[in-house]
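Hey, resending since the last one bounced:
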Amino acid sequence: PLCRVDVRSLVVSAAAPSDGPAAAPASPRSLGFTRDGGIIQRYDPHPPAALERPAYIPPHQAGHAELVEIAYPDHGVARVWRLPRELQEEDG
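The structure tokens again:
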């Protein structure tokens, strides 16, 4: 896998309400890194339906696809579409 960071737990913990003042938005570096030095810039568990999904996402699961954007210094940004593990296991 390209990304070995559980981005879902980061988003859930960042969105959890706190008793103190509102926290600053998460910086890309706070979301994590890939093993190849990429910086996770964005995780969207529910991207807009208007964004075209790649061919490797089965059409019947397109509404469940998640989007992760990873910046690789000196190489650009990768847009990675993925399905939650429980859906990947269904299609086996």
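The mean pLDDT is 76.

Sorry for the duplicate.
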